[in-house]
Amino acid sequence: MEDFNQPAIGYEQPQESILEELDSLRQSNKLIEFDPYPPRKSQPELFSLGRVQLSTLIIINNTHCKILNQYSSRFSLEQPLQLLLCNAHILVFLISPSLPTPTSPPQLVRIDLNEPSLVDTIPLLIPSLFQTNYQNKQPPTSIYRIHCDPTGRHLIISLESAQNYYVSLSPASINQQRAATQHSIRRATQASITPGPAIRLLSKLRGLLITSVGWHHSSFNGIPQSSTREIILATSTGALFATLLVDHHSQETNSSDLSITAAFSRIDRSTVDRYLKPIYTLPDSSDDPIIRGVWWDVWYQHTTQNRVIKRALAIIVTSGRLFQFVEQVGILKSRRDDDANDEVLERLFGSYQSNRVLPSWLIFLCITKTVNTLSFSSKTHQISLSITLESLELQATQNSQLHVYNPTSSNPQYSPNPPILSWMTGAGIYCGEILHGSQEAGDGVIGPSELIPFPLPQHPIAGSSSSPGPNPNTEIHHLPLALCPTEYHIVLLFPDRIQIVCRLDGRTVHEEILDLKPGERIRAITTDSVDQTYWLYSEESIFELIVKNEGRDIWKVYLARKDFEKALSHVDMAIDRDKILVSQADHYLETGKYISAAQIYAQCSKPFEEVVLGFIDRGERDALRYYLISRLERLKRQV
Question: GO biological process annotations for this chain's record (predicted)?
Fold first, then answer.
């Protein structure tokens, strides 16, 4: 028996009379413009795909840098670009000498895109970066990686020598650094150069090669704070550490900062790294132990006993494995009782550190040239899933990356959409929803997921005579350098192009050849997780990837899946809504849900005669009567 809400009808009218009245209305042209749903209020959408525009934002020719017309910033640039980051509308890039043995320090350049005329340059006066250690006969070291928090305020510079430095990008710190740098340059000798007030050695982190940082979830709102709050440091040995960094030069404080400051009142206020605690080490394995990505989050659940359960999760990836951690970390009377100084990470990893619980994990193992095995292990069960891929042998990749698109990053208000995980492996792009539910320690946190194979190029590869399509000799070119996710798509970066793949169906919706000079190669792509902007760069060029109206055609993907509710929620045009309703009603008719079909047919513009004949051919007179009466009532309301 079909469950439906039949409209209240207080009379019984012969079918012939209904047909005559409908025919009369049709002949009077009152059936031509039938709009079942009034147009929804259009909401501004952040992205557009299919009309992706790749435009040069900054052009660097080793002599000067000019931002486009809407920006007025100009400054001298005499060294190649090594790294670029963008967070909370703050551009930070690193320029350094290209000589094998540099004799001058690298420089950080900071540009607030809200005030692009103000350009701040911070020389990294770290002696080991540009001076030879004659005592140990060691040449200058190099920068391994720079990590920037989502607010664009806190930087961690990790050197190849396993030394780590903190850089504050707050206005107060930059002003002090500028004055100190001028004084240091006037008076310094080779032996007396000091980094300056904005650059501090993280002594507690000595010996750690930091490969990734899991920033505190509160930083993704883009509001600067004087401290990083609790963060995860991932290392090249598979070890995880918890720490908290405080900018002691900051003149900006808030309630959480005051709480943290009070908690460390007995510690020297000039200390940036207030503590360092080991929280977990990944289990030994034969694959690469280097942690390639880390992300963690906290969420709250209200109970029937007027209590709030606080839970935390963490996701860690190596070159071939993904680990999931989840734990209940507190019970509160209300959200207001949450302590900003609460040591969440120790509680999150406590059960796993003591081996009371094993983490859920995923691993990609190549067993043939055409089949990959996806294995899942948890505290209770283990399963294997074979996935057929149209490609050659795939393995774990050194380019393994973890990215999480969080819908609430660009919208401070609550978003019902879950965060989307994208993990680049040698087998393809593993995508899934991160679920904030009632999980306990040892459970997984990744919901509906799929593995998307890497797409083949649509245009010939630069420097290759091969044509687009499968070619074993050029398969290496099809592995991307990096990726970044949007709400519905994944941007893949290749040496000479970008490809944009729909996350929902794996289609390549756009390919853009990069306008590079001969011999110029793109370095990386970076994402502003707060403003959802995307940046590509080489040593000579910086590009901004602009995406608008991303959800414009997503309803078609859901319609092809027969997910009519989601299709309707992603459409704005009345004509497109009508197409969805017609398809939904046809589907119900074919699957025997005749009353549901009658309900939908009464709301859409499918020809009256076709609907009537469809019910008559199937002998469904009850559904036909329901359709006729519903259609007549709607027409009467329109007249």
Answer: endosome organization; organelle fusion; vacuole organization; vesicle docking involved in exocytosis
How many angstroms separate the CA atoms of 342 and 339, rounded? 5
Q: Is residue 2 within 8 Å of residue 595, measured between CB atoms?
A: yes
**Helix, strand, or coil (residue 288):** coil
pLDDT greater at residue 433 or residue 357:
433
Residue 257 backbone phi and psi in degrees, to 5: -65, -40
How many whole angstroms separate alpha carbon 235 and alpha carbon 289? Answer: 9
Q: Which residue in 133, 270, 278 sits closest to 208, CA to CA? A: 278
In this structure, are 257 and 206 located in the same domain?
A: yes
- Do 265 and 381 belong together in one domain? no
334 lies in the same domain as 448: yes
Number of domains in the chain: 3
Helix (H, G, I), strand (E, B) or coil at 204: helix
HEC string of 401-444? EEEEECHHHCCCCCCCCCCEEEEEECCEEEEEEECCCCCCCCCC
- Rounded percentage of the chain residues whose pLDDT exceeds 90: 34
Q: How is residue 619 annotated by DSSP? A: T
Q: Cβ neighbours of residue 108 under 8 Å, at least 6 residues apart?
A: 92, 93, 94, 121, 122, 124, 155, 167
SS3 136: coil
Q: Does 206 fall in a domain?
A: yes
DSSP per-residue letters across 459-496: SPPTT--PPSS--GGGGGGGS-SEEEE-SSEEEEE-SS
Q: Do 224 and 307 lie in a common domain? A: no
End residue of a domain, out of 263, 281, 299: 281
* Phi, psi at 589, each rounded to 5°: -65, -45
233 is written with which tokens?
A: 């440091």
pTM: 0.78
310-347 pLDDT per residue, tens:
999 999 998 888 899 999 988 887 777 676 666 799 99
Q: Are residues 225 and 298 in the same domain?
A: no
**How far from chain centre, in Å, is Cα 243?**
24
Burial 357-370 (b: 16+ CB within 10 A, else e): bebbbbbbebeeee
Interatomic CA distance for residues 95 and 77, integer angstroms: 8
Where is mean pLDDT largest: 16-30, 177-191, 520-534, 540-554?
Answer: 520-534
Q: Where are the alpha helices (DSSP H) in 139-205?
A: 171-187
435 plus 404 within the same structural domain: yes
Domain encompassing residue 274: 79-281
In a domain, 514, yes or no: no
The answer to whether position 345 is within a domain reads yes
CA neighbor of 105 nearest in space, from 64, 138, 133, 140: 140
Q: Is 221 exposed, middle or buried (0-12, 13-18, 19+ CB in 10 A)?
A: middle
Q: Is residue 200 part of a domain?
A: yes
Whether residue 238 is found in the same domain as residue 132: yes
* Residue 383 banded pLDDT, cuts 50, 70, 90: very low
Q: Do 125 and 261 belong to one domain?
A: yes
Which helix (H) or strand (E) covers residue 257, if one does?
A: helix 255-263
Write down which residue in 453, 471, 500 finishes a domain: 453
